[in-house]
Write a structure and sequence with these properties.
The chain is of the alpha/beta class and 208 residues long. The protein has 2 domains: 30 residues, no CATH class; 173 residues, 3-Layer(aba) Sandwich (Beta-carbonic Anhydrase, Chain A), CATH 3.40.1050. It contains 10 helices and 5 strands. The protein has a 5-stranded mixed β-sheet. Strand 4 and strand 5 form a beta hairpin. The structure holds cobalt (II) ion. The site of cobalt (II) ion (CO) has 7 residues, from helix 5.
């Protein structure tokens, strides 16, 4: 794709929006009050808004390699703090996707420089769930399961934060774990048992 084409597309998009609603950008500039925080993979094929069919203003989006929420990552922690504590979103979604290159890289032994500590968080997920993963002989099935377990553990990382625990108590905020299946285009809800997990997580990570 040529960079110039993007600016042409942008002009066409402005025209399209204004044809439908002359006040579109004026209204958009007034502020945002999204209901959902979406944390997904930076993969170019997994476009957050398009696959969910949502419009500008609907979803607060954070994307990084392999949809991670590392405990000491200032970027994702700031996004959670702002979206939950200031924008008051009521849903936090962690969305992984099958055939995620980040998860694939974490399953291999290559030294990838500065990517190593990032991907090590996925290796930690594999270690936590070693027994389950070792029982899967099919490599493709194991790869898919690690992607799902990684989503689950990143949801747990979301639940460890004080701002999310407070929003859970005060207004019933919900955390969702999803996977996008690139093969079919389908968005799959992993039906993360939020309430059950919360009591287990709170036993260790509870903050007042
Ligand atoms: Co990915």
């Amino acid at each position: 794709m040529k960079i110039d084409k993007i600016f042409e597309n942008n002009k066409a998009w402005i025209k399209e929006k204004l044809n439908l609603d002359g006040q579109y950008f004026e209204n958009l500039s007034k502020g945002q009050s999204p209901e959902i925080l979406y944390i997904g993979c930076a993969d170019s094929r997994v476009t957050a808004e398009e696959l969910m069919g949502v419009a500008p203003g609907d979803v607060f989006v954070h994307r990084n390699i392999a949809n991670m929420v590392p405990n000491t990552d200032l970027s994702s922690m700031s996004v959670i703090e702002y979206a939950v504590g200031h924008l008051n979103v009521n849903h936090v979604v962690v969305c992984g996707h099958y055939y995620c290159g980040g998860v694939k890289a974490a399953m291999a032994s290559s030294d990838l420089g500065v990517l190593n500590p990032w991907l090590r968080n996925i290796r930690d997920v594999a270690r936590l769930h070693k027994a389950e993963l070792d029982a899967i002989s099919d490599e493709d099935a194991k790869y898919k399961r690690l992607i799902e377990l990684n989503v689950q553990e990143q949801c747990v990382n979301v639940l460890k934060t004080a701002v999310v625990q407070r929003a859970f108590r005060d207004r019933g905020l919900t955390v969702h774990g999803w996977v996008f299946d690139i093969h079919s285009g389908q968005l799959i809800d992993l039906n993360f048992d939020f309430n059950k997990s919360m009591s287990q997580i709170m036993e260790i990570y509870h903050l007042d």
